[in-house]
Amino acid sequence: MCSTTKMMSNGVFILLAGGSSSRMGGDKKELLPLPEGDNALSRLSQMLEQGKLIKHLHVVYAPMHEEAIRQAVALFTGRITFSPAGTTRQASVWQALEQLSAYAPQWVMIHDGARPWLTHQLIERLHEGLAQHEALLPIIPLTDSLKRLDAEGVVVEECDRRSYGLAQTPQAFHFDAIYQAHKALQRGNFSDDTSIYHAHHGRHAQSILGEIGNKKLTYREDLA
Ligand SMILES: C[C@](O)(CO)[C@H](O)COP(=O)(O)O
Fold it and tell me: CATH says 5-223 is which class?
């Protein structure tokens, strides 16, 4: 019990804002005004500032937006560090983890900067889960039917939607476990971090229930 409590004390939250936002027509999605005001990065950093758990925020920035991204997260008063984006999401996370290893964190949460409506409750549930699990991710059950298609778009399988879920972020890990996975698989192009964890360790992450409100801004319509 004592070692678990100690393990939980030193963590870092990575906010990814290094992408090109090509599906948003090139406008940097993490900096676009949200309907309620602010932008995704300023909203997220202020939310983290108000919570008690996150004492170290690490921001991955797209170099051409570095100044605006630094300004957006400026209200976070804990430790804040930065690294530039790599050529893929995976490369960006690896560069961040490598830089952060100097701080010897015990856990890390990796979050899309384009999911502005993250809540304290989800962060706290993930943090609690890390006492028992090495890797965790929030999942949303499917509410639409699920079909598998061939290359021509013809339905070739009716899938049981109860066996599938939509993966969200933050994805949470014991730091060494995800650091070793990224270190070993640097040249891949995985779309999220629990898949890198699985590819390296051969173990799947534990899911917890995600939040429907924790949506990702991908297309302009997502801002409505
Ligand atoms: C990490 C992620 O949000 C999990 O659903 C998703 O894979 C990110 O995808 P994107 O294409 O980088 O927005």
Answer: alpha beta
